[in-house]
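Example 3.
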Amino acid sequence: MANKGDLLLEMKDVKKRFGGAVALRGTSLSVRAGEIHALLGENGAGKSTMLKILAGVHVHDGGEITLGGSAFISGSPQASIDQGIAVIYQEPSLFLDLSLAENVFVGRQPKKGIAIDWKEAEAQASKLFKELGVELDPKRQARGLSIADQQVVEIAKALSMNANIILMDEPTAALSASEVERLMTVMRNLRAANKAVIFVSHRLDEVFAISDHITVMRDGATVSEKKIAQTDLQTVIKEMVGRELTELFPKTDHPIGDVVLEVENLTNAAYFRNVSFTVRKGEIVALAGLVGSGRSEIARSIFGIDSYDEGSVKINHKPLKKNSPIAAMDVKIALVPEDRRQQGLFMVAGVNRNISMESFSRLTGRFFINFKKERALTNEWRENLSIKYADQSDPVDRLSGGNQQKTVLAKWLATNPDLLIVDEPTRGIDVGTKAEVHRLIDKAAGEGKAVLMISSELPEVLGMADRIIVMREGRQVTELSRKEATQENVIAAATTGKKGI
Amino acid sequence: MPEKNKFKLRKSWDTAILALLFVVWVLASMTTDNFLSSINVSQIFSNSSEIMIMGFAMVFLIIAGEIDLSIASILALSSAMLGYSYAHGAPIWLAILIAMAVGTTCGFINGFLVTKLGLGSLAVTIGALALYRGIANGILGTNTINEFPEFWTNFGFDTIGKSFIPQTLPVIIVFGIFFGLLLHNTPFGRRTLAIGQSQMAARFAGVNVVRHKIIIFTFTGFMSGVAGIIYTFRFSTAQADNGVGLELLVISACLLGGVSIFGGIGTMWGVVAGVMLASSVESWLTLREINAQWRTIVTGILLLISVAAPVLVDKWKRAKATAANKS
Amino acid sequence: MASLFKRKALGREASLGVILIFAVAVTGFINPRFVTGDGTRDLLSATAIVALLAIGIAPIMIMRHIDLSIASTVGFSAWLVADTCAKNPSFTWVQCFLVGGSLGIVIGILNGLLVAGLRLPSLVVTLGTLYIVRGGVYVVSNSVDYNAQEMPKSLLKIGSTAFFGLLPVPFFLALVLMAIVAWFLKYTKAGRDCYAIGSNPPAADLVGLKVFRRTFLAYIFSGFIAGIAGVFYLMRFAQVDSTAFYGQELAVVAAAVIGGIGLLGGAGTAVGVVIGALLVQTIQGALAALGVDAFWKAAINGLLLIVAIYADRILASRSEKALLAQRIKERV
């Protein structure tokens, strides 16, 4: 058992490259027992690569990693576990068919003679849950557990393996406010037990509420490593992005026209209730709120990917058939989904084939696709959005994240939509491309399209939107105009459900 | 850049299969007297008729990430129905229509089970494999029907005029052009590939995945019915165990032709090359007077090679790339 | 009835038991011979092979894989054992099991290397080996058949003995295997690993389970059991040709699925699988007892499999819906 303040983990000038791409160009990190250490950085800064090296999924190419004085043996998850490192992923991957006790002890079940001693396993699991301050029945199946409880099971597992270093990858991203509070209690308990907790988060308020140390990464290198008292929010943000926030949002004013989208009392019992709002021509309306507050599900229901239980959706004053993306596309709705790799693109297919996917009606004669027109269309949108690729038929997988996102935008803008829904349009792309995407969205509004934007990045919401609808746990909390909205009242509404401070 | 490798691999796979086909032809004509004689070439074409016809449709299914193992049973059932209804007094044109309708219905049922009821296509079509052949068995028992109008048995057996081109070949070519264009030049084909690459992304792109898959299953059933008709006339026999195990030949031919078992990748001409390869090997074995029983083994080995080879080549290339990176 | 179908540990076995009794009762009512001592013994010895094989593939299916080559292995093993006995008249039943089991292990190794080693889709791989092994029987048998005269008397005697005139030895042996496998799956680390691997394959890699070793050994086990089942085949039928047990893999898979091993892995027990096998045989036996033509047997096997998969799917979607409802309740 480590004493408080012992140096548990030290990484020096760690490097990692994947083929030609450099993921880590020299990161350092030192973490002590009895400390909560936040690891910050934009997406792509190299945080997950670092976690994966410690988890034994990847092997670093250069630099030094020591654990409590001895060299880190890398290369297999098992080796990492043996060295006292445990990783809690954002979406825990439990064995849903197995009991909680078994999930805690999978691969290391306590034995009596040659047989597994289930009573003992259940007793031990129950004890661990109690230590973490959470009452869970060790006999129940993991299927159906909330994400927050699944994380608790993962943490209990880590403790049962005597892990000293507990890595958490965005543990709060999918949790409700009360669940976050509970997780923080668990983290404090871990700190009190002299464990080292390293956690990655994008929610800076939480970071400042709980951590002792903050390490900021940018472009695969460590930018700063400070005690919490030595830094503040503004500094951290600057270190993360490396440029001033104000440059990012080129929003211009456009005339606002007739109503395009009317959503009335839309309810999908599992995700959201009684949601009503409108979006007009030339207007950008943002759905703000935490991840999991039902925003993406609303977008999916409007576009017809999912169905809904009650309420109605009208486009240009005409009711829209539910649960039919084809009907939605017919009335010129476009949805740029939140997950471009899974939902937005066909990763192994060429850029041209991705861009033409929704525009066949314009490329097809009587039966056949006109390949010349397809090439022309791709070139047109390459120029409009300055997408960078070597050859039209290059699989989009080879493009950078920013160019991939532009490709998704291009294929939907190519359909010339009346209503453009963008879900997390700038997630995981570099700062320069972010600004370009913002300009494109602004331009679309300028052309008279109605834009519904979902974003978890508050500055983006405040910078881009004409009106902001704040969601919390599936309910519409408040609607703010551009003038009324401030960082504080949007956060307050999203996290507490109160309309103002 | 594993993706880059994958694509290069796919292209080199297509070339490799052509080269392999060539090698088989050279070896076969060296080791046998009349492999490239007009009669034998005609035989190769003619023997590959059913595999080719079912392959044209099956390639869509595999690309869309599904599979149908019951096609040979559908062939048998439609053959049985053709024989049964003709023997029971139906005019031949009606019997042919019935056989086609039976095939189409079977395909639709498979599609319905897979898409509407959400059952895994591998497992369900194994059940359907037993079911359809079982029904053929139930209808015909051990009977065989081999009295068919001469015009139609000639169609199955004869060549065009004095050439070596089987009469069935033009039919196959027409189907081939139709399905080739459908796969590579139409939105329907593009959507098929899209579904195989990412079913979720396809839904977000407005593809009606359920309907699309049902259509593919249905025309796969139809083509299996057509294959059943040609099989019946080619051997002028309708019996319950017609075409046993043919589904494996079709699948191996598709995989040999570079269609990915995981979906999303494949070309029509690759499939044609794959079918030609499989049937050339078969013909070679026949000419060498190798025991017919060996063919079951060769079929199985071909299938194993066709799934294992891409993985092995991929592993080998990756190992080579890592070695190159290290040095 | 609805509460019977809840997906609880024992619920599945209990509800299967009820269906089984129901099926036996109805058939017995229509054809009383079905429930006599003879009828029962017949049913149980017919079930023995399918039950044995279903137990054999249980670990594989729990790991979300499949083995379709088993029926071919049974055929090959039965023919090979008969052939060896014909050539070595001094053979005893022990040696028969050794020969059959060894052949099965060889085939299991082949499957295991391809599925566990190369991580190829198990369905396609074992479909391939199904044909290769069956082709192997065709080739080596060269259309030679064997009858009771060529087989060791000690072996045939085991097949025809029954405890209390009701419980045939082969079925008893299947029950013994069931008990061992049930214990193994519940109380050993290797057994639990099977469930974990099938429940969430990527996570199994992540927590460092020995996925290759477990999968590989499971295929060897399945092959071994199939080889043993080949000897059981001889005990029951006392004759063999190259088409022995052709196509019966479907009955086995159907028994396993009906017995509660979902095709998505992670669930199922050895006891459930044996009940599933009994149910499949009862239905087939019942149809025969009710006078349905033997030609329809394959069709019924296929239909049974489809129905079993569908029922499994319904049960799964039912528990999904229950979870969703629970989630909605938590939201309100």
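The first strand of chain C starts at residue 162 and ends at 163. The beta strands of chain C are 162-163, 167-168.
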